[in-house]
Design a protein that fits this description.
Radius of gyration: 18 Å
Strand order of the largest sheet: 3-2-1-4-5-6
Number of helices: 8
Distance between the termini: 15 Å
Shape: globular
Largest sheet: 6 strands, parallel
CATH superfamily: Glycogen Phosphorylase B
Strand content: 5-15%
Order of helices and strands: EHEHEHEHEHEHHH
Helix content: 25-40%
Number of strands: 6
Length: 217
C-alpha cells in the first residue's frame, strides 16, 4: 500500500499481509523563489473526472477582488471535452491558467516554487504529487479522503470536503491572508518529510523482499 489508511480498505483477513511503502521524492535543485506579485497555487494532475480537476479554478472565482491568487494547472487533458472545459475556464476566469502537460522536471519546479498545491481528487490510493509536495516543502490543501489523509496525517489542517468549492475557497483565502495558518500548513508538510525520503523507501523495499513469502504480522 502507498499509505497506511489503504490497509483499512482491505478485507480484514488480508490486512496482516499488507505492507506500506511510501513513494519517495526529492526537491529539484535551483528552484526559483516564489513570485511576489501573485500568490501562485498549482494543481498537478491530468484532467479527468476522478481528479475533480477544476475545483481550484472554481474556488478562485469566489475569492475577494483583493486576492492575488493565481491557479496554474499542469496536466494533460485526457479527452477533447476536458481540454475544451479548460480553455473555456481560462476565457472566463482570469485567475486560472492551464499549462497542459509539461516535462516532469518543469512540473516539479513549478510545484516547488508555488505557495500552495491544491489536490482535490475524489479518490486516491496515494498520489505521488503529495510526496513531491512534501519533499518540496509546498503546503497542500487537499480533499478529505483516506488517500490524502494517509499521506498528510490526521491532524493536518488543510483538508476540505470533497467537491466543496466554498470550503476550498475559504482555505485558499485564509492561506493567503493568515500567516499563522500558512505556517501551520507548512509545518504539517514538514512533519511528513521523513516518510518520503528515498533512503526510507529503499529500506522499506529491502525489508519487504527479505520477508518469507506469504508472511504476515
Amino acid at each position: 500500500m502507498l499509505q497506511p489508511l489503504g490497509v483499512d480498505e482491505l478485507p480484514a483477513p488480508l490486512r496482516a499481509k499488507a505492507r506500506v511503502v511510501y513513494q519517495s521524492a526529492t526537491r529539484p535543485p535551483n528552484v526559483p523563489p516564489p513570485r511576489t506579485d501573485v500568490f501562485e497555487v498549482c494543481v498537478v494532475g491530468h484532467l479527468r473526472p476522478v481528479k475533480d480537476p477544476f475545483r481550484a479554478a472554481w474556488a478562485a472565482r469566489l475569492l475577494p477582488a483583493s486576492s492575488r491568487i493565481r491557479v496554474l494547472h499542469l496536466g494533460a487533458a485526457l479527452s477533447d471535452a476536458m481540454a475544451e472545459r479548460a480553455r473555456t475556464e481560462m476565457a472566463v476566469n482570469p485567475r486560472y491558467r492551464w499549462l497542459g502537460e509539461l516535462p516532469r522536471w518543469k512540473t516539479l519546479r513549478v510545484l516547488a516554487r508555488s505557495r500552495l498545491l491544491v489536490h482535490s481528487s475524489e479518490m486516491e490510493g496515494g498520489a505521488n504529487v503529495l510526496s513531491e509536495a512534501i519533499a518540496c516543502g509546498t503546503p497542500v490543501l487537499a480533499s478529505c479522503i483516506p488517500g490524502n489523509v494517509g499521506l498528510l496525517g490526521r491532524d493536518y489542517p488543510g483538508y476540505f470536503p470533497v467537491k466543496d468549492t466554498e470550503a476550498l475557497a475559504a482555505l485558499m483565502d485564509r492561506a493567503e491572508r493568515d500567516l499563522a495558518f500558512y505556517e501551520a500548513l507548512r509545518a504539517g508538510v514538514a512533519r511528513q518529510k521523513p516518510w518520503v525520503d528515498p533512503a526510507r523507501e529503499r529500506q522499506s523495499w529491502a525489508e519487504l523482499l527479505e520477508e518469507p513469502f506469504g508472511a504476515s504480522r
